[in-house]
Design a protein that fits this description.
By secondary structure, this protein is mainly alpha-helical. The protein is 66% helix and 6% strand. The strands form two sheets. It has a two-stranded parallel sheet with strand order 1-4. A two-stranded antiparallel ribbon has the order 2-3. Helix 3 packs antiparallel against helix 4.
Amino acid sequence: MPFVIDVNPVATQLGGVAIRWYGVVVAFAAGVGLWYAGREARRRGIGGTTFETGVYWVAIPAALGARTLYILQNGLGQVGADPLHFLMIWEGGFSFYGGVIGAAVALGIFARRRGLSLAQLGDVAAPAAALGMAIGHFGCLISGDSYGNPTSLPWAVIYRNPGAMAPLNVPLQPTQVYEALAVGLLFVALVAGRGRLERLGPGATAGAYLFGLSAIRFALFFLRDEPPVFLGLKAAQWIGLGLGAAGLAILAAGIARRPVAASSLIRQEVS
């Protein structure tokens, strides 16, 4: 029998504003991700003040990027009718790829202004982002966002609450669960392989994250109920191909820099 989800996506009302479970879960996921990023930053010798400043630099661009890409893909009509709809983030609607792109741009600017290594900052952020994304997808599951194609599989999900974003009373692929589990495994792999990735050079962890995330989402979007845009592929799959290529390039660049970094370290020790 399919799993039935009959949860009101609105958790509570505060001052006439609907606070949705999606937002609650995403906020919790962001908190856990920041906690892990802070822990990883300290392990790599990045000071607390630098980390906190970096969080301020990245948080807003990541949210804006996530919201902007989601609107471009799904909500242009709503924003055209009411431009303030763009700001109604409590109603849900974020693109994980948009968040990654926004955060990466902001992180690059921050690193340049502070004279820091973007590759090392990316290595700090990558596993934390994977952990946060794994948790955040359960918010999508509750709200019915990012739902999959109709299916007859016994582990399908059926939405019954009228407030759900998914079609009601239709057995659907639980793509939110698939992605949460897959990205969770990516987080475990990044942590378990941390030593090997660090030996490959700066940026290797970030590159592996981007490539792994892109591969996961490229495969899962074949199960998502979204129209293709070009050559049978969906918009997120094309974005994923670009980010996956960027991940491989970052990984290759880190490996290429490794001998230089090693020889520089030897010279410092000799001197």
